Amino acid sequence: MKTKSKFHIKNKHKSGYDLNALCDLYPELEPFVYENNYQNKTIDFAQPEAIKALNKALLLKYYNIKFWDFPDANLCPPIPGRVDYIHHIADVLKESGINNSINVLDIGTGATCIYPLLGNAEYGWNFTGTDIDKVSLKNAQDIIDKNRLNASIKLRLQKDSAHILEGIILDTDVFSISICNPPFYKSEQEALEATSKKLKGLNKEGQKHVRNFSGKSNELWYKGGEKAFIHNYLYESSLFKDQCKWFTTLVSKKDLVKGMYSSLNKLGASEIKIINMEQGNKISRIVAWTFQ
Length: 292
Description:
Shape: globular
Helix content: 25-40%
Mean pLDDT: 87
């Protein structure tokens, strides 16, 4: 199955998927595979169950993740896009001369623990994953336990949802880089409107409003939306500038970048990087900054 993309050169999925090989390894994927009008094998990307099965197969085949399960209500992360973020921050670290003892802070690791799994599989990095949801962290810990990654991945609960880094980063912590995939929407209504638009693009207009990648409220929306979350993150990063070399975040709305530049300059950032990412019809970017 071919995908139009501009993935990172190290991304194992830049040329698409071999669905036959994936089904051989993970037979649970097979019921969701069909031939489209062009005689190409594909899956129905409007079905959350199909998305989940595909990503389970990818994790098993390419990253040796033998157990990866979570409630259907939780956000199902697309593996190719998530691992692209990992490869790009590996470049940021390499360009800074940070090559050994990499310790990554994952903000909002979620029930799937996806970034720590991928970062450890691809680069052997150590991770500290955070979340405000106890149930999600319990599920993430189950994934860590069953894949025997306890030595490499630790979890912490953010007890105050008003904060992102405060209450998480301890006096003794030193992180190489932080990563974050922020909630994109201001409200449930905005998330539903985005789902309608996506279903229309998949020729599933009129279908029941079920997000193909699912998602719980704290994963999808935040009071004030992406802008409010990111600017809170920017400010708090300045409070821990000596304990984390680089801070990064995904940014879905291009219009936010100019305001981020302005805020980071006022906060005293010494370097800011913008890394564009394009996968299929989705265009986003990583913003990385440091005070050191």
